[in-house]
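Okay, is this right?
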Amino acid sequence: MHGHWGDIGRPVYARSAIKSLQAIPLVESGAANAFGLGDEELALACASHGGEPGHVERVAAWLARIGLTEADLECGTHLPFHEGSAHALVCSHQHPSGLHNNCSGKHTGFLTTAVHLGEKTKGYIRYDHPVQQRILGVLEQMTGCGLGDAPWAADGCSIPTIAIPLEGLAFAMARIADPEDLPEKRRDAVLRIRKAWAAQPFLVAGTGRFDTEIMQACGGRVMTKVGAEGVFCAALPEYGLGVALKIDDGAERAANVAMAAILKRIGALDGADPEIAGRWLAPEIKTRLGATVGVVRGATGLAGEG
C-alpha cells in the first residue's frame, strides 16, 4: 500500500513527531540496559507528555536513578499541557519545573546516554554535542537522507530540529513498523522502543490526548506521535507501513483529523472503539456554553469516502 498527497519531497522540521527515532541511541548505546530502564522510561523518552503527576513523578525517579536532578534538564519550563494538572500546580502556589516540560522524558533519555558514555551533561542540547551528533547519524540512516548540510533550528525544548523530507520521515516510520532490513543491533533497539511506545500510551501523551486515546482504542496495533506545527508520524507494524504528515498552517486540530482519516483509510481503525475513533475523525466545535455548532472533517477521499 502506498499513497501520498502534496509535496512529500519538501523538507519539514519534524519536531516531536520523531522522538522514537531520537530514542534509538538510548537503547543502542547500552545506556538503557546499564540503568535498568523498562517500558515506562522508554515510553517517556518518546513522549510529549501532559505534565500529569504520573508523568512528572516517573521522570523525577528516572533522573535520580542516573544520579541527576531536574536542575540538569535543559528543556526549559512551562505549565503542564493537562489543564487539571496546571490548575492544581497554580492553586498550590507552585511553579512549573523542567519536569513538567512535555519533553522532559526525551531530555532525560539524552542525559542517560551521556552519563553512560562518560560525556559532559552540560550543553547536551547543542548541535555539536555528541548526544545530538549521534542522533543526527541515526536520523540519516533511518530516513535514508543525507542531513549533514540540512537546515536546522532550535526546537521549543532547545534541541536541534533538522529539516527532513516528509517522504524520509514516512520511510523511517515504516522501518520502525518493519525493521527487518536493519542491522541486528538497530533492529533490536527499534523493537524494544516500539514495544514500549505501544504498551504505555498514557505516558506518551496523557488524558484526553490524541496519541493516548487512539493507541488505547487500537489496542497497541498503531503507534502515533504528534509534533508541533502540524507534524504527525505513525508506525503500523501490522501493515509494515509508516505515515508522516505536515499541515501547512501548523494547526494541530487539522493534523489530528488528517491522521485519524489516514488511519481509517488504511484500515488501522477497524475494530477500534467507535466512540473514540469517531471523536477524532470528526471532532465537534462547541460554543463556550457547550452547544455543538459544527464539526471538523477530513477532505472527501482522505479516509476513503467519495
About this structure: The first helix runs from residue 19 to 22. The chain has 14 helices and eight strands. The mean pLDDT is 94.
